[in-house]
């Protein structure tokens, strides 16, 4: 409390301790802080995804067009996804490895989504196309390398994924994520971000 | 240290102006600022850096007149600058190589400060402002590298934004707000362009504070001994240091011009001449050379500690390696500023420089490749045993013959799926980066605090004037300055 302040406030309060002026200071600062926060909100929020960006966040894919033993790569909102048509050998290997010790254990079936009729189509495996290490796009059958476990290989830091997209070797901590998707029909899937 | 102003306005106009806006006085005082007379060429990098900032801003403003910040057009607009815009190739090469030159100068400037103890009392705030400038430089350079929208621009920025996503709880939302969508795209490119334009002016503002803070205690100097007698120990900045800095700037321009005219792409990466493709990651993602040591520290952490994952630890180590610079003034407990008079610290400092540069090489190389091999490559057989567990055979010198890999393969059952591969053994870049990264942190966290207590400093000259006289063969004084009780 300044010399001036305490003199001015003599009539209303003791020189020391809380004064009406303190209250005015706090109240004024609170209003200013509230105002700053209210103005900051839209300026922060505009950094987030815009409505058109959000609207472009799902796509339908016809999985019957994917040839056996190959995969297609779909970009949705800039995010890559793999849709792989697995061979019988690849499916068998994925199931056979279900109980092998892994970094991120998951059964092959838990990485599939049911068809409208409630059954599984283990031929079609849908995963995120981003390595769980630092987000590189792993290479697959079309790029000439499937890694030591037959699935995908990430060339950035050497992560190997198996035919179920599970991490088997290398620095990545998690399996290739299974995106949010559903079978719109027996041959069409709808992937959402 | 600056003392009272010695400026005397002479004309009627300057007298009139001096009463109203003493800007001529401000400039004159800067030029007559008393500067230690023994500054060596390591002290010219401040001036060189100021020139670098101006070059980047001027060339950048020009490039922004031709650049289009859109994922469809960015790459083509940069190609247009290089091919069609008159002298666009020159201006862009100056800007791109200017970033490298800027970092080269800032690293020398920082090592200078670390060696001569320029961060010590009373110059802590100068140092901290310097670290802030350095951080802003890295942010600006990172965003600038994204703008040409090449393969390395795109995937390098994807790696860095994913690092931020590794921070628990707040990481993922920050990442989304940074990118403006689920992935790097148009919103990201546009905001990076906007910030890349803004940040250099913020840097310029902090540089003003940096120089202001410098003009309170004045320059440190190679002896670390404070100016005691302005008349004997110091010289006016102009003409003595304007000329010395000017000469250094011209020599620096020789190197700069060499890169711009003879090796404009030597410091870049070939992958950035390919337009960004989100579906194809380049085989080997590396940042620009000036960020490589930190990239090496990031990748050096391949082990979990307790519940904390290696990925997060790597991010913490990387940001920690930069953040630690903020507290260096308090980690170094020695009262002697200059390492000229610190025999042990001097050697550990040299190792620190070697470790920092070595980390740069680690960052540039594949961590699983070898610095050197232990011996010739051999052969191994990969197979699956009867319990369905993957096995690797011992190493074989040859394929055929008595103890060859072929014989071992034949001894396995058909179902083992045996295959031969080449087995290399050597000293991995990963291990080197772990050793050098450990030294980096040891230097700051253990050696600097400990040396102030255990090291016995050498005798220091009693004053700057005496140190200069001694060097030039005049009769040295008998007095020897004892180790100070407190920082001078």
Q: Major sheet of chain B: order of its strands?
A: 5-4-6
* CATH-assigned homologous superfamily of the largest domain in chain B: Cytochrome Bc1 Complex, Chain C
Class of secondary structure makeup of chain A? alpha+beta
Total number of strands of chain A: 9
Strand-and-helix sequence of chain B, N→C?
A: HHEHHHHHHHHEHHHHHEEEHEEHH
Tell me about this structure.
- The complex is a heterodimer of chains A (193) and B (488).
- Chain A has 193 residues and is α+β, with helices and mostly antiparallel strands.
- The longest helix of chain A has 26 residues.
- Chain A contains four helices and nine strands.
- Chain A folds into two domains: 43 residues; 142 residues, Rieske [2Fe-2S] iron-sulphur domain (Rieske Iron-sulfur Protein, 3-layer Sandwich).
- In chain A, strand 2 and strand 3 form a beta hairpin.
- Chain B folds into two domains: 359 residues, Cytochrome Bc1 Complex, Chain C, CATH 1.20.810.10; 49 residues, no CATH class.
- In chain B, helix 3 runs antiparallel to helix 5 and helix 6 packs antiparallel against helix 9.
- The longest helix of chain B is centred in the middle third of the chain and has 29 residues.
- Chain B is globular.
- The interface between A and B is medium-sized, with 32 and 34 residues.
Descriptive keywords:
heterodimer, A: 193 residues, Rieske Iron-sulfur Protein, 2 domains, 3-stranded antiparallel sheet, B: 488 residues, mainly alpha, Cytochrome Bc1 Complex, Chain C, two-stranded antiparallel ribbon, globular
């Amino acid at each position: 409390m300044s010399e001036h302040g305490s003199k001015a406030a003599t009539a209303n309060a003791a020189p020391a301790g809380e004064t009406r002026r303190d209250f005015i200071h706090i109240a004024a600062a609170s209003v200013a802080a509230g105002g700053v926060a209210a103005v900051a909100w839209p300026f922060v929020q505009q950094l987030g995804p815009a409505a058109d960006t959000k609207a472009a966040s799902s796509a339908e894919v016809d999985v019957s067009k994917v040839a056996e033993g190959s995969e297609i790569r779909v970009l949705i909102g800039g995010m890559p996804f793999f849709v792989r048509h697995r061979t019988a050998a690849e499916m068998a290997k994925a199931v056979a490895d279900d109980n092998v010790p892994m970094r991120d254990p998951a059964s092959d079936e838990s990485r599939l989504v049911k068809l409208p009729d409630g059954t599984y189509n283990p031929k079609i495996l849908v995963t995120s196309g981003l390595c769980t290490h630092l987000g590189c796009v792993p290479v697959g059958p079309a790029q000439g390398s499937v890694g030591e476990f037959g699935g995908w290989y990430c060339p950035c830091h050497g992560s190997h994924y198996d035919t179920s997209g599970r991490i088997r070797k290398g620095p990545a901590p998690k399996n290739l994520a299974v995106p949010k998707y559903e079978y719109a029909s027996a041959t069409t899937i709808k992937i959402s971000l | 240290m600056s003392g009272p102003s010695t400026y005397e306005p002479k004309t009627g106009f300057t007298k009139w102006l001096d009463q109203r806006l003493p800007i001529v006085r401000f400039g004159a005082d800067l030029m007559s600022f008393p500067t230690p007379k023994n500054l060596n060429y390591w002290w010219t990098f401040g001036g060189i850096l100021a020139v670098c900032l101006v070059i980047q801003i001027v060339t950048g403003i020009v490039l922004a007149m031709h650049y289009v910040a859109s994922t469809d057009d960015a790459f083509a607009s940069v190609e247009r600058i290089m091919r069609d815009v008159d002298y666009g190739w020159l201006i862009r090469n100056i800007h791109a190589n200017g970033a490298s030159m800027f970092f080269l100068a800032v690293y020398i400037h920082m090592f200078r400060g670390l060696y001569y103890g320029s961060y010590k009392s009373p110059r802590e705030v100068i140092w901290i402002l310097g670290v802030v400038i350095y951080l802003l430089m890295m942010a600006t350079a990172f965003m600038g590298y994204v703008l040409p929208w090449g393969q390395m621009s795109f995937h390098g920025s994807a790696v860095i934004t994913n690092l931020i996503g590794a921070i628990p709880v707040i990481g993922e939302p920050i990442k989304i707000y940074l990118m403006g969508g689920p992935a790097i795209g148009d919103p990201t490119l546009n905001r990076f362009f906007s910030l890349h334009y803004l940040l250099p002016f913020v840097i310029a503002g902090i540089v003003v504070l940096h120089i202001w803070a410098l003009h309170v205690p004045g320059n440190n100097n190679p002896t670390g001994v404070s100016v005691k007698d302005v008349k004997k120990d110091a010289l006016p900045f102009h003409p003595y240091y304007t000329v010395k800095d000017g000469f250094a700037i011209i020599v620096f321009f020789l190197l700069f011009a060499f890169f711009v005219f003879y090796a404009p792409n030597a410091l870049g990466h070939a992958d950035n001449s390919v337009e960004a493709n989100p579906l194809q990651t380049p085989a080997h993602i590396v940042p620009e050379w000036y960020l490589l040591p930190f990239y090496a520290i990031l990748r050096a952490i391949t082990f979990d500690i307790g519940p904390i994952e290696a990925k997060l630890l790597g991010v913490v180590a990387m940001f920690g390696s930069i953040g630690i610079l903020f507290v260096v003034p308090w980690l170094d407990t020695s009262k002697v500023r200059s390492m000229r008079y610190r025999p042990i610290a001097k050697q550990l400092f040299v190792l620190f420089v070697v470790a920092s540069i070595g980390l740069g090489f680690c960052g540039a190389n594949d961590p699983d490749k070898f610095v050197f091999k232990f011996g010739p490559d051999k052969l191994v057989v990969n197979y699956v045993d009867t319990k369905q567990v993957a096995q690797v055979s011992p190493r074989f010198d040859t394929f055929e013959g008595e103890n060859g890999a072929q014989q071992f393969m034949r001894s396995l059952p058909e179902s083992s799926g045996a295959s031969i591969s080449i087995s290399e053994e050597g000293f991995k870049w990963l291990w080197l980066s772990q050793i050098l990264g450990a030294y980096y942190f040891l230097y700051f966290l253990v050696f600097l605090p400990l040396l102030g207590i255990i090291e016995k400093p050498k005798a220091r000259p009693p004053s700057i004037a005496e140190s200069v006289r001694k060097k030039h063969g005049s009769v040295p004084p008998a007095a020897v300055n004892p180790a100070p009780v407190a920082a001078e």
